[in-house]
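A student in our group prepared the protein record below, which I am reviewing. Thanks in advance; the entry in question is below.
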Amino acid sequence: MTRALPFALLLAACATATPVSDVAPTVAATAETDPVDTAADAADDPAIWRNRQDPAKSLVIGTDKQAGIHVYDLTGKRRSFTPAARLNNVDLRDIGARVVVAASDRADKEHGHVALFTLDTARATLLPLGRYPSGAGEAYGMCLWRRARDGALFGFVVMKDGRIDQVAIDLAAATPRVTTVRSMKLGTQAEGCVADDRTGQLYVAEEDVGIWRFAADPAAPVTATPVAKVDGRTLVADAEGLALAPRGRSGGFLVVSSQGDNKYTLYRLPDVTFAGYFRIGGGTIDGTSETDGIELALGDFGPDYPKGLFVAQDGDNAPDTQNFKYVSWAEVLKTLKQR
């Protein structure tokens, strides 16, 4: 495995950066999910399925890393719960005949696994397909990538120590086949990741360092390219969840949970240049803080979300347990016009 060369420079930048309390635009949450059943650090990462025929019946999936995985509707009401030990990050792909859901499985801290499900969209339930080994270590992050040229499905399992195992997911048979096809490495703890199906680029958050980009194809080199660093101002450690707002062939935004100052930082694609940031709060629903996972899906989700739905984990939902907040992407875009 090839380690990216500029680690020392990025780490030095992080060591000298001092967090700055910048004023950020605030966007109110439109809805919130039912709280998870377990206390303390429990809710973690969301995924979104958009119902193209009836956007109001779209669904949100969210992990409770102490107990299992939930399915919510657009009002935030929990529609189902599937028990599973220590699922962390979750992602999905709608491949036409089925909606495939994958989660990082931390039940065995010595050996990472991928837990696979199909989403029964009519009943808003998850049907387990099994759990499959990926590689040694504790599985933290998880994201999926569907290769444009042939539709092949891959997953990226981000281990706590910064290793990233890429797995090929073959769904041709009744029982899925999951095979580790390559590994990449970052220097310190990492978790959040997102892959761009259009461009074949994988983005990974190294929590105290910044955002890195890899080529997602398993035949590509494993060298990481630094694209955004933790600087204590635009991005404050820990850098956690990642999400994409694609536009055209390669444009749009990369969104990062800047956990250290409770903001969400936007970078303009394809060059990953800083575009702005926002916070969630100021409405009748409480805001978010210490956000782990985020997700974003564009398109019409009904009158409350005409341009897309942004979902963020809320690390402090007191007096209730943690949950997830829903935000209109149209309202986020308005904050960029204010800059």
Remarks:
- The chain has two helices and 25 strands.
- Helices lie at 7-16, 329-337.
- Residues 1-5, 7-21 have pLDDT under 50 and may be disordered.
